[in-house]
Each structure stands twice: as structure tokens, then as C-alpha cells.
Specification:
This protein has 73 residues and is of the alpha+beta class. 11% of the residues lie in helices and 27% in strands. The N and C termini lie far apart (63 Å).
């Protein structure tokens, strides 16, 4: 009983989480030799990511869509 109380005091969950997968899509396009565009979507199928409470004990949920340009020289 004492061990279980210590785990709860540290913020560790006793709940078992089933395995799941997150799918992402990323596209890159070379506009010129030195210029590349990219865009993508994280969590394409909008899978609910595990969250037990607020703070560092949860999994982060970054923004889903992104775009950018890379210039190299």
C-alpha cells in the first residue's frame, strides 16, 4: 500500500494505455537548386493523444499543419 502512495505522490499514472499510431504526411518540392518548399500535416487522422492531466506528465500535442521554405547557399 505504501509503494502505491509513493507512485501517486510523484504523479505517475496507474492507468495502462493501449498502443496507438500517429500518421503524418510531409511534402517537399525543390523550386530551384537553392530553394525548397515543404508542407505537412501531423496526426493526419486526428487520433486522440493520451492526456491524463495538465503539465509535464502528458504527451505533447504539437500543431497539426505546417509549411515552410528553406534557402541554402
Amino acid at each position: 500500500m505504501q509503494k502505491q502512495l509513493l507512485r501517486e505522490d510523484r504523479g505517475l499514472s496507474q492507468r495502462e494505455i493501449k498502443p496507438y499510431s500517429i500518421v503524418g504526411l510531409n511534402l517537399n518540392y525543390d523550386i530551384t537548386k537553392n530553394l525548397r518548399a515543404n508542407a505537412g500535416i501531423n496526426n493526419l487522422f486526428d487520433k486522440r493523444i493520451y492526456r491524463e492531466d495538465e503539465g509535464a506528465s502528458t504527451y505533447n500535442e504539437p500543431g497539426r499543419a505546417y509549411a515552410g521554405v528553406t534557402l541554402s547557399f
